[in-house]
Amino acid sequence: MDDGPVYAERPAPAGLACLWTRTVSTPTVQRVVPDGCTDLMWTPAPGALFVAGPDTQAQLAQVAPGTLYGVRLPPGAFPSVFGVPAHAVRDLRVPLSELVPSARLESFSDMVAFCASRVVVDPVLSGTASLLRTVDVSAAAWEIGLSSRQLRRRCLDAFGYPPKVLQRVLRFDAAMRLAWSGLPFASVAVEAGYADQAHLAREVRALAGVPLGQLIRP
């Protein structure tokens, strides 16, 4: 019988990225890698609600037996839901009560409703995330009509990263998805926008702490 973690996603209401659960039967250590998103998570026992801020590097999380429930926000949505800039919780896990003391959530459906009712993504910033997948930072700033300094400030507030770091994280996340699909690593590097496979390997080690082959191993 397989006692490994069981992770599942399902569609979320408009404005949210996805809903997810992770169930483990024995204590385990999970490697969480940067993806440009933030999550509200709930563990039924002891009923802890906490917010996972945007990560700049891999985090090793101790996961107790049971089911962890999560609501994933799209990039840029954090300030509207939690009332603070995303960079304030970068690389942190913070109790929801510290950010929104008035929140009274008692179930997964409460979590979903809470996030869905508050989420707002500035269309300019949503476009920024898309642009940074294909062009450099200065070109993205010019395209959306902001100075480099304005773009940096707005990216820090909305995404938790300066633009160049956001670009690295988005490219890494795209590479991960391609690698999980079974694409050869050389092709992953080309499709995700890396200079070559060696560049991909360096970036994966920098952001995830392990080689790509180890990272996607079942």
UniProtKB/TrEMBL annotation:
SMART domains: HTH_ARAC
Residues forming coiled coils: none
One Pfam assignment: DUF6597
Entry-linked InterPro entries: AraC_XylS_family_regulators, DUF6597, HTH_AraC
Signal peptide annotation: none
Listed Gene3D superfamilies: Homeodomain-like
Every HTH araC/xylS-type domain range: 130-218
ATP-binding keyword on record: no
Keywords: DNA-binding, Transcription, Transcription regulation
The name this protein goes by in its record: Helix-turn-helix domain-containing protein
Native source organism of the sequence: Lentzea rhizosphaerae
